[in-house]
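Quick one from the shared queue. A colleague (R.T.) flagged Mob kinase activator-like as missing a structural entry in our internal table.

Convert sequence to structure tokens.
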Amino acid sequence: MKNHSGLKKRRFFQARTFKKVKRVNITTNRYNLHEYAEGTLGVGNIEQSVKLPEGENINDWLAMNTIEFQNTAKLLFQLVQERCTTETCPKMTAANDYMNRLLLWVDELTEDPKIFPPMENDPFPKHFKKYVAVIFKRLFRVYAHIFTCHFRDIQDMGTEPHFNSCYKHFLLFVLHFKLLKKSDLEPLKVLNEKLLKNTKTQKKKKKK
């Protein structure tokens, strides 16, 4: 997974605007990490997929996953964006505009080369994890809004299992790396407890 050529290569994230997902550069270590994560998710082991692979750089892992979760949040919001109106979201009448601005703000942060250096071997900022934590706090609001205001829409589209799987992956990741506090996750407390309980049950079954 390491680059020993001595040449600087671009990290996998590329500049883009909301409604587009970041592409992966197949020549980079980040892409290898991306493939590793996809592989562990592919066998259904979400809990294992969040853990840092042995011998890899924690900042590379956090950066790669930040982009992945950012893209997922965008795609999930796009599913309900047309249904996000003042009628469907009476308690948050500007929800559509807010979510768009939130995701654009995340775009700007992840595209800032001083925070997410685009070239391999360029250093990450000293407090990179704090920037990541702020991004995940914002992305959680996307999940919270979809679950509280558009879950019926998700069910009607038949994407509830996918939504739950995506959110479970997000939840396990932020808990594993302590990116969010329990108080940050309070709006989805019931769902969180249900998903975590299911995870513990599955682990017990595997041990038998």
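Residues 168 and 195 are 6 Å apart (CA to CA).
The two ends are 35 Å apart (CA to CA).
Added to the table.
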